[in-house]
């Protein structure tokens, strides 16, 4: 296999045994390699610059520099890798904050090994690792009236087709499913999504989903 085909992962968790277990699970897939790991997010920008990971998998609660700060720092980098946060509880204000700061998705620490591996492939493709049902509960738990009005205002910039794509993203549909539903190619869906993110100033499809949920459209 060519090195360029391997998905490179940076793993951050303060528990050595947890990191070892996740590394073992991920590297059971020949297309995934953990290129670096650390016990917290200190120096994460340097680690990203040195190892050029495709995905940063980070515990959300760590001593020192936690997953929220990791998300903020990494998503602000040029050509930023996808950030996925690991958490113990799905309805967690920390997760909500991480998603708003640009995390691509989140996983529970008891996620089955096969789903953990699949998640890395999903976010590497530029898609979100979010359960629609959990996302609705999570975002509904912390939504505010101001956020609703702000979200509606930002979405007015979208065309009807772009709005349709944005709602489909918020429903958790993949690009392939959206393309089949609309009768267009996946490439066309990606073009729409790129325009949507630009118009609403979203860093990724997860933030598009949050905006749509805030506006009450999904």
UniProtKB/TrEMBL annotation:
Signal keyword on record: no
Pfam families the UniProt entry points to: GerE (PF00196), Response_reg (PF00072)
4-aspartylphosphate modified-residue sites: 59
The HTH luxR-type domain, residue ranges: 151-216
UniProt cross-references to SMART domains, sorted A to Z: HTH_LUXR, REC
Top-level taxon: Bacteria
Keywords assigned: DNA-binding, Phosphoprotein, Transcription, Transcription regulation
InterPro entries to which the protein is assigned, alphabetical: CheY-like_superfamily (IPR011006), NreC/VraR/RcsB-like_REC (IPR058245), Sig_transdc_resp-reg_C-effctor (IPR016032), Sig_transdc_resp-reg_receiver (IPR001789), Tscrpt_reg_LuxR_C (IPR000792), WalR-like (IPR039420)
All copies of domain Response regulatory, residue ranges: 8-124
Transferase found in the keyword field: no
Protein name (database record): Response regulator transcription factor
Species assigned in the record: Amycolatopsis rhabdoformis
Lineage start: Bacteria, Bacillati, Actinomycetota, Actinomycetes, Pseudonocardiales
């Amino acid at each position: 296999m060519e090195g360029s085909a391997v998905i490179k992962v940076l793993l951050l968790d303060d528990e050595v045994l947890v990191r070892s277990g996740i590394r073992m699970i991920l590297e059971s897939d020949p297309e995934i390699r953990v290129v670096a790991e650390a016990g917290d997010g200190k120096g994460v920008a340097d680690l990203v610059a040195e190892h050029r990971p495709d995905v940063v998998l980070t515990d959300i609660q760590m001593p020192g520099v936690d997953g929220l700060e990791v998300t903020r720092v990494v998503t602000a980098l040029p050509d930023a890798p996808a950030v996925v946060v690991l958490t113990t509880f799905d309805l967690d204000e920390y997760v909500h904050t991480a998603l708003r700061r640009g995390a691509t998705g989140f996983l529970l620490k008891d996620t089955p090994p096969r789903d953990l591996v699949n998640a890395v492939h999903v976010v590497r493709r530029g898609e979100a690792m979010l359960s629609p049902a959990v996302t609705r509960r999570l975002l509904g738990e912390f939504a505010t009236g101001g956020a609703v009005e702000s979200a509606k205002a930002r979405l007015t910039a979208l065309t009807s087709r772009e709005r349709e794509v944005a709602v489909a993203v918020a429903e958790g549909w993949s690009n392939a499913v959206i393309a089949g539903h609309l009768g267009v190619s996946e490439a066309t869906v990606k073009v729409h999504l790129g325009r949507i993110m630009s118009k609403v100033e979203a860093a990724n499809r997860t933030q598009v989903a949050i905006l749509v949920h805030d506006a009450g459209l999904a």
